[in-house]
Amino acid sequence: MASEAGKDLLSASETARRLRLSVPHVYTMAAAGTLPSIKFGRAVRFEESAVEQFIQAHRRGKGKAA
């Protein structure tokens, strides 16, 4: 069960790829609280569902061409 606990956590590089941003920018957004993150010591992780919610919340046009 413990192995499933972190299954939906993404690294900064995985999150950056998903958002098509640089890794430093992802860290900056996490530090500012713009992008929800979890910090374990020096490691920063991102819940997959929170990243998807972030994308949906920042979607423009709601189906129209932006």
Task: Give structural attributes.
3-stranded antiparallel beta sheet, alpha+beta, 4 helices, 66 residues, single chain
Please describe what this structure looks like:
There is one protein chain. With 66 residues, this protein is of the alpha+beta class. It has one domain (7-57). The protein contains four helices and three strands, in the order H-E-H-H-E-E-H. The protein has helices at residues 2-5, 12-19, 23-32, 48-57, and strands at 9-10, 38-40, 43-47. Strand 2 and strand 3 (43-47) form a beta hairpin. The longest helix has 10 residues, at 23-32. The radius of gyration is 13 Å and the shape is globular. The N and C termini lie far apart (43 Å). The mean pLDDT is 89.
Tell me the radius of gyration: 13 Å
Taking the alpha carbons of the first and last residues, their distance comes to: 43 Å
What is the topology, as strand order, of the major beta sheet?
A: 1-3-2
| Strand segment tally | 3
| Overall 3D form | globular
Profile the largest sheet.
3 strands, antiparallel
For the record, the count of structural domains works out to 1
Order of helices and strands: HEHHEEH
Taking pLDDT < 50 over at least 5 consecutive residues as the criterion, the unreliable ranges are none
Q: Summed up, what is this model?
A:
The protein has 66 residues and is α+β, with helices and mostly antiparallel strands.
How are the SSEs placed, and which strands pair?
Layout: H1 2-5, E1 9-10, H2 12-19, H3 23-32, E2 38-40, E3 43-47, H4 48-57
Antiparallel strand pairs: 1-3, 2-3
Helix pairs in contact: 2-3
